[in-house]
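Progress report, Aim 2. The chain analyzed during this reporting quarter is listed below.
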Amino acid sequence: MRLLFLSVILLSFPAFAAEQYGISMVGTPKYGANDTHLDYANPDAPKGGVLKQSATGSFDTLNPFNIKGNTAQGINLTTDRLMARVWDEPFALYPLIAQRIDVPDNRSEITFYLNPKARFHDGSPVTADDVLFTYETLKEKGRPNQRRIYKLATAIKINDHTVTFKLGEGHDRETVMIFGLMPVLSKAYWQDKEFNKTTLEAPLGNGPYIIKSAEAGKNITYERVKDYWAQDLLTNKGHHNFDKIIYEYYRDDTVALESFKKGDLSIRREWNAGKWHSNYKNTDATLEKIEHGRAEKVRGFIFNTRRAPFDNIQVRQALNLFFDFDWVNKNLFYGAYKQVNSFYPNTYLSRDISITDSINHRAKLKQGNALLNQAGWIIKDGKRIHQESGAEMTFDILLDNPSDEKIALALTRSLKKMGIHATVRVLDSAAYRARLNDYDFDMTLHYWHSTLSPGTEQYLYWSCEAAKTPAQWNYAGICDSDIDNLAKAIPTAKTREELIQNTQKLDQTLWDQALMIPLYYNPQDYVAYWKPLKRPETTPLYGMVIETWWMDQGEADKKD
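Predicted structure tokens for the chain:
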């Protein structure tokens, strides 16, 4: 009877390709089973030392897998996933907790064969029951994207170290990749606890670090697991080299910068070109500008097209023309930035942008004024009013970061010259997020973020469904059937060429909608660090990977 049952199970499975070591979103993975380390990692990097970094604000939870609270920085170091992502390929996964996988050509399911050496920090083995518990828990109580994707599957336990997820209606080629990125939680630890709340108790993990201490709002310290079971795997060799990693929390970034300059912190990533060019002159720290090839954030003043007057494309196009990016870049950011010219900036996924716009700002103002006149918005007594209703063109610009206020004020000054009154409002992060989730704004300075392998998130950014669903990412409220179809086509692409073509088409269609006043991006990473720190010579496609850095103990001893 048992043999008959197994035969039925096996016959119900589709024909599999050969067992896979790694998997790529499209194409063939770069690394094979005989590779010992990633090209951008130093397999001989020494272990030891303490890495101190800054964080701003506060934290009130050590559980990053639900939507409650503010999670502590670095918490991802404590929990491993079924597979690990690498950063010198657009989107590829390699063994971690799962030592190999089976995926049919149509990607309708995925089987994970767990590594029998996988352990939680208390020494207990990671089993199929832990994977199934994680799946069921995150499907009901996890983050929105996890809930949506995990509900597409049916889980089958094959044995104590093998689990299959059979995918139902709505899956695409990316779905198996998302399952590969599933964290694995301890059933024994979590089953008697309330998962969907904040907690400052350190959960039982299975990653390269454990939480040594945590004081909400002040600091958190991680300690390297000396006998970490996965330390010699392909994706870990030469990684996780510091004995301790500490995040010190500061009330604002200015204080954090001064703390770094005094030597209290080991390393600092600088995201502001103005600060980089003005605030690091009198320091002996090593300063580097490291080129990268990842997709940058699409920052801009986003129009809420659900509301007038931004439901009129001519109005949106006109306000685009009024913004003087060159002045802002020169006077606020030392001319260091490039203006966003795509929804996939800094990548080959961008539409054809070989033809550049070279007209001067005065000519742009004339063009914008003509567009507003065509849309019925005329100047009367120095104010921009609608010629039929007599309503004045006024709106709010919503911000959550005081440092963005100077950019927003530069925009309001340009608009004022054209008779338009805009008010800048800075909210605290909680109030801002609530307004953003409800799409309760006129215009906001925010961003979208894609990767070099865009997928199902594009539908959440741009679809009609997302525009009508609170807490999705279609901030602009765009609803267009052509955009819906293009967004759906991206994760179904079977080749890299097809993916690029689909993404470029979507990029052009979105750009034609004038959904935002584009701001800036930086094709370089700014990083400052003190000399005991070392990094590999090779920088991967996505930029610097701090997990591969190490401490030169000889130089550290000299410094002491």
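The chain has 17 helices and 25 strands. Residues 496-511 form the longest helix (16 residues). These observations will guide the mutagenesis work planned for the next reporting period.
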